[in-house]
Amino acid sequence: MPQEFVEPVSEIDVRLVDVVKRFGDSNAVDHISLDVKDGEFFSLLGPSGCGKTTTLRMIGGFEQPTSGLIELQGQDVTWLPSYKRNVNTVFQSYALFPHLTIEENVAFGLRRKKVKDAEVKSRVTDMLKLVELPGFERRKPNQISGGQAQRVALARALINRPAVLLLDEPLGALDLKLRKQMQVELKRIQREVGITFLYVTHDQEEAMTMSDRIAVMNNGQYEQLGDPESLYERPQTRFVASFLGVSNLLAGTVDGSADSFALIKLADDTRLRVPAGLVDGNTQIEVGIRPEKVRMNRADDPIPAAANQLEGVVSDVSYLGVSTQYIVASRGGIPMTVYEQNVERTNHGSLYHQGDQVRLSWLPEHTFVVRGSAPAAGSVE
Q: Which domains does the chain have, with CATH numbers?
């Protein structure tokens, strides 16, 4: 007797329990467990080959897991075929029917379900308004732009009112400016329809712009799961710290405590302070600081006594438009990346120049701690 999907009420729309997908001797997905909440914009973020698309395909029913459990709205769908799952998928390729009009493409799923003509017309009209394409009904896919085609694909997927919408790198084929516009539009649409979005991407800015929560994946597992701010401000592994932006990582040894901070001794005997709760009983650790949290100071500028400090020499200066990037060789030879906003710039030219002696400072509260050994201290990105 084949499984039949029944739509129960659940606060968790997607649940994975110890899911494994093996191709030959390799684990593409390696014992993943996670919950995606009802109405959430949830992203699987990671590099190529990390297992994120395979995970999405198992949720959609396009791949079967080697082992584990997959639930949709509380219903076990592990072995249920894709057409019996209450999900729809939007792909990077759009997969629009070139011989059908935009109206016919969007209505395709409703026609297959034999929905009455009047309701089809009404729902297509509403859906094209939602994706801001009213008046495009009679055009063909070759008569619209790539961004408009992506909106049509989204409308076609949403019109069936799925419990979960799966999106596999849907903006990857768009140029940078249009991709950024569509990020805002996707989040707006998700909020308006209230449907759970499960999004796959390798673009960290894309994931952070749209997501309520993100699972950062690596080697078939996720290394950390949380909201964008906590992942960025408090990465827990070297991989997460480097994949979500740029981090300065410094290897050190716990060397006592002061107030609510642990004291960290670097190889050159510099002492830094980090929140004591982040050390978690370890003695050999790596501390991190984001480049925009670091302040550049002249060698004789006053610095608050409580601030973490490193001395160094500017080795490289790069103008980035909104900011200037400095590479500073700190005492002990560790390269540090620093971003300074150009709002303070009054004329053309850098505030600091190659060869300048500087002191770097930052608040101890902005320091994070990652687990995992490093081949060498320095900036990672």
A: 12-233 (3.40.50.300), 238-380 (2.40.50.140)
